[in-house]
Amino acid sequence: MSADRGLVEAALADEPGAFERLVRQHQRLCWHIIYRIVDHRQDAEDLCQETFLRVHRYLHQYRYESALNTWIGQIAYSVALRHMERRRVPIVERGEDDSDVSIVENMADCTDLEALVFNDDVVRHVRDSLESLPPLQRSFISLYHLEDLSIAEISRITGLAHGTIKSHLFRARLRLRTVLNVSLRGRK
Fold first, then answer.
1. Residue 21 has pLDDT above 90, yes or no
2. Domain 101-187 of CATH type 1.10.10.10
């Protein structure tokens, strides 16, 4: 937290290069959140820029109650959701609900997706399969597995309950597992 505090204070004091350092440190997280939701490179670039403009405008309101990356992640998530709402793009699959959360919370995911990725064709197929997921599932998979954020951190960013996030992750993994198993069986 002290590194966050120092960086925020430097940016608020308009020290040369401070805000650029802040952007460099958090742009990957911002990109993962936004791109996985909107699934369009140009829109994601524009929305990341909008996110950091908001961070700059409201940095004085950051209260150090959470990590800086969580606060920036919340802004990125909010910007991405507003973008999807304006475009009237659904962010979850029709018929999804959280009625199975208690089951999901008790299930362990023993699939090692990395072990499945053993050549370029499979890597390409995994990437395509990820892109076929609904925006929230795609985003949560990216944050959890690529950014190594915990369920609690994702919850703080999105404002969603732990069980809801676990449910989305479970559904995403199940869909990916099914698609990848079918693909791998077809290759034999």
1. yes
2. yes
